[in-house]
Design goal:
Layout: H1 27-37, H2 39-47, H3 50-60, E1 65-75, E2 83-97, H4 101-167, H5 181-207, H6 222-225, E3 226-228, H7 243-263, E4 269-280, E5 288-301, E6 304-315, E7 320-324, E8 328-332, E9 335-345, H8 352-417, H9 423-458, E10 468-470, H10 478-486
Antiparallel strand pairs: 1-2, 2-4, 3-10, 4-5, 5-6, 6-9, 7-8
Subcellular location: Cell outer membrane
GO molecular function: efflux transmembrane transporter activity; porin activity
Biased composition (Polar residues): 498-508
Length: 517
């Protein structure tokens, strides 16, 4: 389950990992650096800051609206009595009932926030898969390059031997300048292995948003830290909380709320308000106290809008002004003053039926997208599972082929010791070992990449799942044992350290501290 994935968040609280930290980069480090530098994830993090603002704005609709209002009229015309009037009042208005629309709008924002969180998880998953594939490829190329470096020592020894034979007069000097085709072919493969190793490192840097010239060293011996398990034929159950599936469910909830809003738009909205203040005809300070209450009703009936308002006020002394919507200011005297108004707009919401149609269409589309998402995930999972079995079977096949070739090579090594075959003939027999050996390595890393994808589909930890487990300590892998068996005079321990490595704590890839499940 996605909740069981506990890795890749701890460093967020402590900042970006320094590339110049002690030691070489592990798988976890590469993923962390890439995620911290990924521009898409930074943009998504900025987007999350919008939803608390929108929710805060919706919550304000539950609060009363306060305001200070000033109104003044001055008249100084010829042949008329001068007039002066000022009115200052504190006004308040409160929504009493809105048919639950504010709550639905708040829920829509909360669901959109959850959808955006799932989209962010999908981006993290994509970034994780991309970096992990490039990381595995870089380790594969590093190991193959190491093999060619070790084998090259044998060819260099053969060259030194030929020079010694020339010095002893055993062979002619012109024979030294002739490069055997097998040796040239090996040198070509060695050069290619070196360039592929450099290109793999460059691709990994690019996926991590690193500069090509930036300091970069990978921790060797990945295969010594990974324990792989054979895949088992069993029913594959997709994780219900996979971000794609969860996003589809949330989109269904969102369109359902949209439809509820249309179904409930007939419910009236009740507003209650009031005011208190002073007015006067002789400048400041104002002489007369005023206060009053107002009631408003708004509704939508079958596309026709209905609105009604009523205001009742008290003027203590003197003359005042009552502002009636649609009629302007009207003079009032001391005592009680009120007005009522109402209006009906017949079929003034022309696009109402279009909104209903769009809501139903969106709901149907959300259902279809959910079904399509489930189908795509099932097909992708089945396709990955088939490739996974294929890679594992090829890995075992080529590994056994390599072991058989090693047994035959030992016989050829004995014949070489008796000078029954030459060194060059022996090196040709080594090709029979390393051709299947490279194929075994290719299949091994292909299996790891596919298993990592399957773990993500199933909601399992991509560092520890049913297909493989990344251990804290190193142990001798099958490939290491084969190289040691082959390279008796150059033990592989000198090339790679077998000291234990401490793995990073693995918090969740998908959850952040500010996200709620």
């Amino acid at each position: 389950m996605w909740r069981s994935l506990r890795f890749l968040l701890l460093y967020v609280s402590f900042g970006i990992i320094s590339l110049r930290a002690e030691g070489h980069l592990l798988w976890e480090d590469c993923v962390w650096i890439g995620m911290e530098r990924n521009v898409h994830l930074k943009l998504e993090k900025t987007k999350t800051e919008l939803f608390p603002i929108l929710l805060k704005e919706k919550w304000k609709q539950y609060l009363p609206k306060l305001g200070v209002h000033y109104f003044g009229i001055f008249s100084r015309n010829k042949e008329q009595i001068d007039q002066e009037y000022r009115d200052v009042r504190l006004q308040i208005q409160q929504m009493i009932y809105d048919g639950g629309e504010t709550e639905r709008e708040k829920q829509k924002i909360e669901i959109k926030q959850l959808i955006q969180a799932e989209e962010k998880k999908l981006i993290r998953e994509k970034v994780f898969k991309s970096i992990s594939h490039f990381y595995l490829n870089a380790n594969k190329r590093m190991f193959i390059d190491l093999i060619y470096q070790l084998r090259r020592e044998r060819y260099l020894l053969e060259k030194e031997k030929r020079k010694t034979e020339v010095a002893a007069g055993i062979i002619a000097s012109k024979e030294v300048t002739v490069v055997p085709f097998g040796e040239a072919e090996f040198e070509s493969k060695r050069i290619q292995a070196k360039s592929q190793h450099l290109l793999a490192n460059l691709e990994l840097k690019q996926s991590m948003f690193l500069d090509p010239a930036e300091s970069f060293l990978l921790e060797p011996g990945l295969m010594e830290r990974i324990q792989i398990h054979p895949p088992k034929t069993s029913t594959i159950e997709l994780d219900e909380n996979h971000p794609l599936r969860k996003k589809s469910r949330l989109q269904l909830e969102l369109v359902s709320l949209e439809e509820q809003s249309l179904e409930n738009d007939w419910k009236p909205k009740f507003l209650l308000g009031g005011y208190v203040g002073r007015n006067g005809n002789a400048g400041f300070p104002l002489q007369n106290e005023i206060y009053g209450i107002s009631i408003g009703v708004q509704a939508n009936l079958g596309g026709s809008s209905v609105s009604s308002s009523s205001q009742n006020g008290i003027q203590s002394e003197g003359n005042g002004i009552q502002r009636i919507p649609g009629y302007g200011p009207q003079p009032v005297g001391p005592g009680e003053n009120s007005f009522q108004s109402g209006s009906i707009g017949l079929f003034d919401e022309i696009g109402r039926e279009k909104k209903r149609f769009d809501a139903k269409l969106n709901q149907e589309q959300a259902h279809l997208e959910k079904e399509q998402t489930d189908l795509i995930l099932k097909n992708n999972t089945k396709s990955t599972e088939i490739k996974l079995f294929d890679s594992y079977q090829k890995y075992i096949l080529y590994l056994e082929c390599t072991k058989s070739a090693i047994v035959l090579l030992k016989k050829k090594r004995w014949e070489k010791g008796l000078q029954l075959i030459s060194e060059l003939e022996y090196l040709k027999w080594e090709e029979e070992v390393f051709l299947p050996f490279e194929m075994a390595i290719e299949s091994y890393f292909s299996y790891l990449g596919l298993a990592m994808e399957m773990a993500l589909y199933l909601g399992e930890d991509p560092f520890s799942n049913r297909y493989y487990h990344v251990k804290q300590e190193k142990s001798r892998s099958e490939f290491l044992l084969i190289l040691q068996d082959w390279n008796l005079t150059h033990p592989i321990e000198k090339k790679q350290s077998s000291e234990p490595n401490s793995l990073k704590t693995n918090p969740s890839l998908w959850e952040e501290s500010d996200e709620k499940r």
